[in-house]
Design brief:
There is one protein chain. The protein has a single domain, classed as Rossmann fold (3-Layer(aba) Sandwich). A hairpin with a 5-residue loop joins strand 5 and strand 6. Strands 1, 2, 3, 4, 5, 6, 7, 8, 9 and 10 form a 10-stranded mixed sheet that branches. The protein has 5 helices and 10 strands, in the order E-E-E-H-E-H-H-E-E-H-E-E-E-E-H. It starts with 14 loop residues before the first strand and ends with a helix. It has helices spanning about 65-80, 90-105, 110-130, 165, 215-224, and strands at about 15-20, 35-40, 55-60, 85-90, 135-145, 155, 175-180, 185-190, 200, 210. By secondary structure, it is α/β, with parallel strands linked by helices.
Length: about 220
Amino acid sequence: MIIKKSNQIVASNINALIYGESGTGKTTLASTLGDKTLIVSLESGLLSLKDHDIDYVEIEGKTGVEKITHFRQVLLEIAKSDYQNIFIDSLTEIAQAIVELAKHEYPDDRQTMKMWGFYNECITKLIKYTRDMNKNIFYTALAKVDKDEAGRRFILPDMAGSIASKSPAFFDFVFHLMVFEKDGEKKRALLTEKKNGCICKVRSGKLDEYEVAHLGNIINKVFN
């Protein structure tokens, strides 16, 4: 048995989920990561990055089965690459494709429970696989509003099924991208703590409640 000291633990990589409303600029956050960044796009919405020089790969396929098959192949290649930052846009699209895959695997209405179990398992395995890549992993997702049994409103990643509320547990960092006005100008910030129904978390303890929407700065703060 090898005894170690917890104060000697050093952060090596970031595993993060960034979610927010459509149009808040989630995709453009990839431009703040610097060199050795690869975007994995399932949304075909990279026009906002046309003025930046960033490598990207588009996940192709007309059906959910084809998209997830291609996505898995891409992940295998990424794992062996020298890219340091992997920006996956988006988990919402991945979840929708996996719903199609699950329905393909279990087309009988009497297999609904098995279908959703398969769906949850697929998403969990994909997130855990990327988490263990030894790279900085950033997933984006749309946000949706939901309510608990007491009628309390909360905001979480937009994914079908119970995995929406469970998925933040798979990440060390969960940020809600917010847009607000200050001094007559639109500003963007990443909320890092639970507030106003938003599900957020930070395991490093090094980030402020609100951080400037710049992923490179966040990496520097976490590692330094």
